[in-house]
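Ops channel
N.P.: pipeline sanity check, posting one input/output pair.
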């Protein structure tokens, strides 16, 4: 039994043990960036030498990369409509969000606004 296994209860009431990798397989998560983010989010600060905040920050970075990969799979140059983007680039926005989350930003955006982006 792995130290990362957790006990779960199925909808029928049966108990079973699984680790994060079994959960990823069960849900069919194939994107490595998503896998990394989920792993970080399920046990922030509990898996090794990194603290909770660092794991959460790394999860944000992984989710941002997963979004970039998803956009790259879209037709017409990575936008939903095929039109060029007129706002700041996604990478600039994501970088700003990471700075805001870590408290290093004076942009004035509220945490609720950042959560919506």
């Amino acid at each position: 039994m792995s130290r990362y296994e957790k006990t779960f209860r199925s909808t029928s009431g049966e108990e079973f043990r699984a680790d994060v990798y079994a959960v990823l397989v069960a849900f069919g998560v194939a994107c490595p960036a998503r896998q990394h983010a989920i792993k970080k989010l399920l046990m922030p600060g509990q898996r090794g030498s990194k603290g909770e905040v660092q794991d959460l920050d790394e999860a944000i970075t992984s989710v941002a990369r997963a979004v970039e990969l998803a956009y790259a799979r879209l037709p017409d140059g990575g936008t939903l409509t095929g039109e060029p983007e007129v706002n700041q680039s996604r990478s600039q926005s994501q970088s700003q969000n990471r700075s805001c989350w870590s408290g290093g930003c004076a942009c004035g955006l509220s945490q609720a606004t950042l959560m919506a982006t």
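N.P.: looks fine end to end. Confidence is low (pLDDT under 50) at residues 96-117.
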